[in-house]
Every structure is written in C-alpha cells, then in structure tokens.
Amino acid sequence: MDKYLSGKTAIVTGGASGIGEGTALLYAEYGANVVVSDIHEELGNKVVAQIKRNGGNAIFVKADVSKPEECEQLVNKTVAAFGSLDIAFNNAGIGGEANPVGDMSIEGWNKVIAVNLHSVFYCMKYQLQQMQKQGSGAIINNSSILGSVGFANSAAYVAAKHGVIGLTQTAALEYSAKGIRINAVGPAFINTPLLTEAGMDDNVKQSFLVPMHPIGRLGESKEVAELVIWLSSDKASFVTGSYYPVDGGYLAR
Q1: Over the range 152-171, which residues count as b (16 or more CB within 10 Å of their CB) and which as e?
Q2: pLDDT by residue (tens digit) across 195-230?
Q3: Per-residue pLDDT tens over the stretch 42-64
Q4: What global pTM score does this model have?
Q5: Sheet holding 33-38, edge to edge
Q6: Radius of gyration of the chain (CA)
C-alpha cells in the first residue's frame, strides 16, 4: 500500500469503535501517526494495539470532547507525542434520545447537541490554532445524511448534524487561504455499534433501514474511512468547504 500519509499525524475522535475505529486503522495503513481518542479507554487501547501489531504508530488519549478543556488537552498531547497535527477527523457522536420534538427532554436535547455539535467546534478551535502555526492541515467533520434532510424522532441529532455542515463551510471560508482544508462527510446508516446501541437488531436493520438505501444494504465503516482518507490527503488539494454523502443512494430517493 502507498504510504502517502507517511510523516503526517492524525487525530480521530470517537476512535474506539465504528467509523472512527475503521478510519484510525486506515490512517495507520497509509503511514500516518494516529492519535485514537475516545471516552472508552479499554476499547481505544485495543485499536492502538491493533495498529501497532500491524506495524503502525499510534497512541490513545482519553478525552470527552463535549468539554473544551479536554479538546485542548487532546491537541496538546498530540503535538507533544508527534511534533505536529496535520489531520483531524472529528467523528465522535451519539444517537441520543428518540422522541418527537414536543416530548424530547431538555437533558436529551442538550446531551446530543453537546456531543455532536459543540464538540466539533471545540475540537476545531484548538486544532485550527495548531494548524495555523504550521501553515497547513486538513480537517474532516463527520456529519450525516441527516445533515441535509430530516428524520422523525431525531430532532437533536438532525439539528446537530445540520450544524456541523454549516460550521464546516464557514470555517473553510475562513481558513482555506491559510493552507487548511475543511470538509464534511455524510454517512447514511452504517453497520456499527451505534445502531445496536439504538436498539436495532438484525431484523430491524433488514426490514426498516436497508430499504432506505437503493444500493440494497447498509454501509460499512471502511467505506466511509476511504473517503475520509482521500479528503485528508494531498490528492484532495483543491477540495474544501464541501459536504460529501456516503449513503448508498439514500439522498437520491
């Protein structure tokens, strides 16, 4: 495999499972130093161990990205370990409470907005400060297909993911001329632990979720990771301020 990310250092938030895990592993395959960050220390360390077994270079940094001070510490620890921050995949997120708007709890709303939207701002704030010092960088924010359409009983999630796209576009306008590219990806329903945590067993996935995707199946983490890797690399050198669905035709229905 072409190690075209060799010498680069990448942060992956929510890197202990699902899309984050798949992307962390792929970053390492392409030669990057990887900082796996998550609140789940045991799972995160397993991802780091797998990267090292495969000959890659990685560390785990525990961080709750809904807290700005922990986002700042994450960047500082990354630079202390590897000397730079070249790439960030702001991926951490939760599904959250499933209720109509009028029945959603204030606590449920605030939790999803904090993890899925505030965290992206906090992470970018400190990532951008470091990348500006270096004069270059690439940031990819994980939005969703629900960043551009609605979905019943998921108001907080949908609002947060719409917000991620707007934040991405605005930051790209501000920083692209400074050598920092910022884009967003929009996965459809991907076969990750997040679906299981939402109470969706195989029967629900097949009967409810799969028919939403014209391609006839759910996506896999690596299929999202491949796009993230490309956006992280110099192969996407003229690409910034954009939102890229990875959705098996979901949005074309």
Answers
A1: eebbbbbbbbbbbbebbbeb
A2: 777 667 777 778 889 999 999 999 999 999 999 999
A3: 999 999 999 999 999 999 999 99
A4: 0.96
A5: 57-62, 33-38, 9-13, 87-90, 137-142, 180-187, 243-246
A6: 17
* List of domains in the chain: 9-246 (3.40.50.720)
Please check whether residue 165 is in contact with residue 184, taking contact to mean a CB–CB distance below 8 angstroms: yes
Maximum Cα–Cα distance for the chain, whole Å?
52
Catalytic residue, candidates 27, 157, 175, 244: 157
CA–CA distance, 41 with 59 (Å, rounded to integer): 11
Return contacts of 95-104, CB within 8 angstroms, 24+ apart. Answer: 95/154, 95/157, 95/194, 95/197, 95/198, 96/154, 96/156, 96/157, 97/156, 98/153, 98/154, 98/198, 99/153, 100/152, 100/153, 100/155, 101/155, 104/155, 104/156
pLDDT < 50: residue spans in the chain? none
Closest-CA residue to 221 (of 86, 91, 98): 91
Closest CA to 81 of 73, 91, 92: 73
30 classed as catalytic: no
Going by C-alpha positions, the residue among 238, 243, 234, 232 that lies closest to residue 28 is 232
Integer angstrom CA distances of residue 112 from 92, 105, 129, 163, 208: 11, 11, 26, 12, 23
